[in-house]
Amino acid sequence: MALLEVNNLDVRFALRGGDVRALRDVCFSLDRGERLGIVGESGAGKSVAAFSLLNLIAKPGYIAGGSITFDGEELSGMKDRGLRRIRGNRISMIFQDPMMTLNPVLSIGEQMVECLKAHRRISTREARAISLHKLNQVQIPSPETRLDQYPHELSGGMRQRVIIAIALLLDPDIIVADEPTTALDVTIQAEIMDLLLELCEKHNVGLVLITHDLGVVSQVTQRMLVMYAGRVIEQGPTREIINDPQHPYTQGLINALPQMATPGSRLNQIPGSMPSLSNLPSGCAFHPRCGFVNDANGEPRKACLDKVPGFVDSGNCRVACHMVAELVNQQQRDSREEIL
Predict the structure, then answer these.
(1) Secondary structure (3-state) at 329
(2) Domains of the chain and any CATH numbers
(3) Sequence-distant (≥ 6) Cβ neighbours of residue 291 within 8 angstroms
(4) Residue 192 — very low, low, confident or very high, per pLDDT cuts 50/70/90?
(5) Is the CB of residue 71 less than 8 Å from the CB of residue 53?
C-alpha cells in the first residue's frame, strides 16, 4: 500500500454563477521516499492539487468528492483538529514565496521554536538546539547568528533554505513543494533543488514537487503527472515521459523548451491558452489547441470534439488521449494478427 493515495479527487469553487470544478478525477499515489513531479501551465490545477492534500483550500473552494489517504488515514473529510496532527508534522509544505511564508516580525529562531513546540512537548532550549541542527543541515552559514535574525535580513536563497529547514523540523514523511524556486535566480534555483533532493534521499522523505519547469522535474523526480485544465492527462516514469511524450500537450511542453529550438529562430510554443474552468471546451479540453485533432483525412476526430478521453496504457505510462488510444488499439490488433 502506498504512503499517499489520491483517488478521483474533485475540487470545486462555489461562485455566484455556479460551482467551478478546479480538479476533476485526479488520481495518483506516492510511496515512501518517492519523488513525484506535477507539471503544467498556470491554471492547470497543480497548486490546487497540492493544497488539497492538507485541505488548505481557502473558501469558496472545497473538496467535493474523492479520497486522500495518508498512511491508512482518510484526510479529505478529516476535521481541523485531526489535520493539525498531520500538517507540518508528517506532511510539510514549502510555499512559492518565502517572504510571504515567514512572519516578518518574528526572528527565524522564534518561528522554528514555535513550530516545534506546537507539535512536541519540549523545552525552548531543546527546540533551539533542533532548529540549529536543521539550519546546519540546509547549509546555512553561521546558523547561530541566523537564528536571531529576521527574514528581511536574509537573501532570497537564505530564506528559502530556512523554509526547507522548517519543513524538515519534525522529520516529516512527505514534503509538498509548490514551485519552491520561483522567486530565485537560476544559480540559486539549482542549489536549492540539489539540496532538497539530497535531503529527501538521505532521510527517505517523499517529495511532491509542483513546477512548470520540465528541466527541474527531469533531474529531481522519478515519476511525473502532466495536468491540463484540472485533469491529469499523462502520468508515468519521468524519464520515459521526457524521452517519449505521448500526449500532444506534453509534446508541446517539451518542444517549448529553449534547447529544442534552432539557434536564432523563434521559440516553439503551444498555440492558444489554457481555457477558463468555467467554460471548458466540449470533449477533450485540449482539442482547440491540438495539432493532432484532425485524422489522416484532415477531418476533426469526432471523439476529440464530443467525448472526454479516458486513460489508455502506453508503455509504462497512462495517457488520456483519443489519438493515442487509436494507435494503441491498432498496435494490439496488429499483434493479434501476427500471432494468428
Answers:
(1) helix
(2) 4-228 (3.40.50.300), 231-260+279-339 (no CATH)
(3) 248
(4) confident
(5) no
For residue range 119-150, what is the model confidence (pLDDT) as tens digits?
Answer: 999 999 999 999 999 999 888 999 999 999 99
Q: Are 209 and 220 in contact (CB under 8 A)?
A: yes
Could you tell me the pTM of the whole model?
0.91
In order of 244, 323, 330, the CA distances from 334 in angstroms are 21, 17, 6
Unique residue bearing C-alpha cell 522564534: 110
CA distance 124 to 76: 34
CB 10 within 8 A of CB 64: yes
Question: What residue type is 2 in one-letter code?
Answer: A
pLDDT in tens, 195-230: 889 989 998 999 999 988 888 899 899 999 999 999
CA distance linking residue 103 with residue 112, whole number of Å: 11
What values do phi and psi take at 198, rounded to 5? Answer: -60, -45
Residue type at position 59:
K
pLDDT-derived band at 339, boundaries 50, 70, 90: low
What is residue 318's three-state secondary structure? strand
Q: How far apart are CA 207 and CA 167, in angstroms?
A: 12
